[in-house]
Amino acid sequence: MKIAFVGAGGVGGYFGGRLAASGEDVTFLARGRHLEAIHREGLAIKSGLGDLRIFPARATDDPARVGPVDLVAVAVKNWDGEGAAEIARRLLGPRTEVVSFQNGVEAAEILARQVGAERVLGGVAYITASIEEPGVVRHNGSLARLRLGRFDGRRSEAAEEFVAACGRAGVDAAVSQDIGRDIWEKFVFLTAFSGLTALARLPIGPIRENPDTRELLRQAMAEAAAVGRARGAALREDIVERHMAFCDGLPPASVSSMLTDLTHENRLELPWLSGAVARMGRESGVGTPVHAFIAAILGLHAAGPA
Q1: Does residue 141 carry a pLDDT above 90?
Q2: pTM of the model
Q3: Residue 133, beta-bridge partner list
Q4: Is residue 252 over pLDDT 70?
Q5: Which class in CATH covers the domain with range 181-298?
């Protein structure tokens, strides 16, 4: 199976790297200093599940040099969504399918406009990872899981082949029977986790231990769940309790990628996370005071340095 990862950061670099190291046909679409380092020294992964280095690694910033692939996996920050969709369009063959492992609940719509809805798969990446330095991806913790599938529940041969390739690489991946719900359920957790850790400039430990901030965390999850249900997502009734229990099991030092981006003065995915909860809440008549506050305060930093 020929796979192209658009983005070689925390998600694309980690999972694509695992697949490439196992012998799968993987090409990375990357750019800048990260791409230069990959060309020079290969792609390194530092992880509690095992370090590795792929050298040489197939990586380029020109999709014309890749040609048609079987599956395009989009794994970029949401502000790069339109550009990534254009790259994906240039990698299409007659049977190519495209899966988004991006955060948020709206990425598939952007892809569909470029490649056609019939080619688009939904995907969810459960991992905390980021570019530690050019050419190096750091995976924090032990969670590293992928889920993907068609939004209408129909079979996808590309998804099945990708899951099989992940199995050979030792990656936890599966075809989802309800990927739309999976995406929304991650969104409920991620918007609260990223918003509160970034707003407090603290890891999850002190936030969950303090009664006031713990309640804010719970309320943020409940707001996102209410918005999801108002927009037709079939979320499970105990979703907030399950996510709070998951938070309690995280290492106390766990931080969100948005806090990491804020600390490094990078652009934030805020408009696609808490900002999206607040916007969709207004559209659906659902109150979202916690997310509206998060979006307002962090919005001062969302564009990165002036």
Answers
A1: no
A2: 0.94
A3: 136
A4: yes
A5: mainly alpha
